[in-house]
Structures are given as C-alpha cells and as structure tokens.
User: What shape does this take?
Amino acid sequence: MDFDDMHDEVLRAFNDVCLSGRRHQYRGRGFRPAADAFYEERTREIVVRFELPGMERDDIELFVERREIVVRGERRFPGGEGRIYQQVEMDYGPFERRVRLMVDVDPESTSATYESGILEVRLVIAERDTSLRKIPIATAEEES
Assistant: This one.
C-alpha cells in the first residue's frame, strides 16, 4: 500500500468514526464486487454477473479456468485537491474476486460483456467424452 492509498484509507476511517457520529461504522475491507451465478437452461450456459459500478471496462481483468472465474481490478477513490468529504460509504481499492464453478467449462468458448456497471460472463459447459474406449493393459514386464 503506497502513501496515497494509506491517506485515503485514514480519511475514510476518520469520516466514518468522527464526522458521521456513528461508532464502528468503518469496515476497511476495500471494494468487493457482488456476484450472481446461475445456469441458463435456454442457452445451456453458466452465467456469472459482477457488479462493478463506476469502473471502466479497460480497468477490469477477467480470467477463466476449468472451474473458476477470476475478476481483478481497482475501483479508485475519487480524490481531488480541495475536497473535504462529509461522508464516505462507498468501497474503493484493488480487488480480486473468485467464483468457483460446480462444473468444468470451456475457457475458449467464454464470452463477456460490460454494460451499465455489470460484467456478464457466459461460460459454455465443457462436453464430456462419454464414448466407450478400450484401454490396453500392460504387464509389469512390458512397462520396464
């Protein structure tokens, strides 16, 4: 954490505790986007939506593995010279949000859109090859 980030964090804590008159309001956890995940029967896809209000698309990174989605970024505190905040309730800072999936997905078939502060990720469930396969059986002598 650099000095500016620490300064912003102290300001948020000061605002919550001293200016608002409410004790123990300060959470100090940083920004953690909310997420919904569901299976869409019509398209046969897993859909995961992340709330990322106030962020630009280019400030968001998305990674997909077989059973996990990772979204990274940073929602920056809108500081500015001469601003004295009366109240700060919104969360800011760097974040990494992981969503574990119950099924394997095909990362190559994943698509994502970002509109009105919502990142929507559509994941195609990986096809499992259930065809019968004959497996050769080796003896211990053949393996050495």
Remarks:
- The helical segments are 3-19, 140-143.
- Residues 3-19 form the longest helix (17 residues).
- Residues 22-26 have pLDDT under 50 and may be disordered.
- The first strand starts at residue 35 and ends at 40.
